[in-house]
Design brief:
Length: 214
């Protein structure tokens, strides 16, 4: 039996709950109108030198992560998000191929309380989880947005307390995004999509990394 692609899995999630689909359609329309993500790095830009702690509290820099080869940087909402979980499950299957072509995966999340490690556990050994406390880097890259009080309240009704998950009352979430950064710090690939139900296909990203290393 053929394993479903990430796109197929996300399509299934999009159709699983009509009520959530309607809410999310409204949110995505607002994000597009506000051009959220438009300021994010694009192909040919220099990716900012980030300095973030990993899940063990050790600070990691972009330069150090690029020391051995290109870096895939994936910004995610958190382990509570089924779309993020599906993406990282697909990365778990793709990681051996990424390592084979000389690449590395770094997952960026603002989740606190050890939850960031949950994302790394989903993606599997070889990935690096970075903790963007208070959305410092995410805001710098233009990827953060205000959820709005209505959706914050709806999430809370379903047991998703954004204040607890992220340690603040700002009501921020990131636009999930995937970048391929070359060893010279330039962006080779950028997937920034306000509709968080759409994600970069890991196998496509691996092929891009492989093309850099030829």
């Amino acid at each position: 039996m053929t394993t479903p692609s990430l796109t197929e899995r996300l399509d299934y999630l999009r159709g699983a709950s009509p009520k959530w689909r309607e809410r999310y359609d409204e949110l995505v329309a607002r994000l597009r109108a506000l051009e959220v993500g438009a300021r994010a790095p694009s192909v040919g830009d220099r990716f900012p030198e980030i300095v973030l702690p990993d899940h063990r509290g050790r600070y990691r820099t972009l330069t150090s992560l690029l020391a051995d080869g290109p870096l895939v940087v994936s910004f995610n909402r958190g382990s509570w998000c089924p779309y993020c979980v599906s993406e990282l499950e697909s990365w778990r299957a793709a990681l051996p191929g990424l390592r084979q072509v000389g690449g590395k995966l770094a997952i960026v999340t603002a989740e606190l309380g050890g939850r960031s490690q949950a994302l790394g556990d989903i993606a599997g050994p070889g990935s690096v989880t970075l903790c963007d406390v208070d959305y410092g880097v995410t805001l710098e890259l233009g990827l953060a947005f205000h959820v709005g009080s209505t959706l914050v309240a709806v999430y809370r009704e379903f047991g998703i307390d954004l204040n607890e998950l992220y340690g603040g009352t700002a009501g921020l979430l990131p636009v999930p995004a995937t970048f391929v950064v070359r060893t010279d710090g330039l962006v080779e690939y950028a997937f920034v999509e306000p509709d968080f139900r759409l994600r970069a296909e890991p196998e496509d990203v691996v092929r891009i990394v492989a093309s850099i290393m030829r």
